[in-house]
Amino acid sequence: RFERGPSDTRGTLLDLSDRPNCCISVRGNEAVIGSTDHALYGIDIQKGRKSRTLYTKQAGHSEWVTCVTHLPDGRVLSGGMDSKLCL
Q: Coil, helix or strand for 74?
């Protein structure tokens, strides 16, 4: 929790992509990160590792993912520079 600060002050490095990340949404124990490689990555916050890849260039956005949010029911909505919304 942010009130206490990180449990490991060195942090955790995750190698998700060779391209920059653009946006993030956090809900519960999951963070979803949108990238300029056109993908969305699910991160298990407690374990500190990638849990899933939601979309890739072949199925999803054809340009950079620029916004992402968790919906109240747990689904993930993303938007990209390709003018598409992916649910």
A: coil
